[in-house]
Amino acid sequence: MAITHRIDDQRRQVWIRADGATTGAHVSGFIVELAESRSELMDYDFVHDLREASGDVNNNDVDRVATSFSARPSSPSHTVFITRDPSFGLWARSMDFQFPNRKHHVVQTPAEAEALLRRLRSEVSPARSPT
Question: Does the structure show a pLDDT above 90 at 123?
Answer without folding.
Answer: no
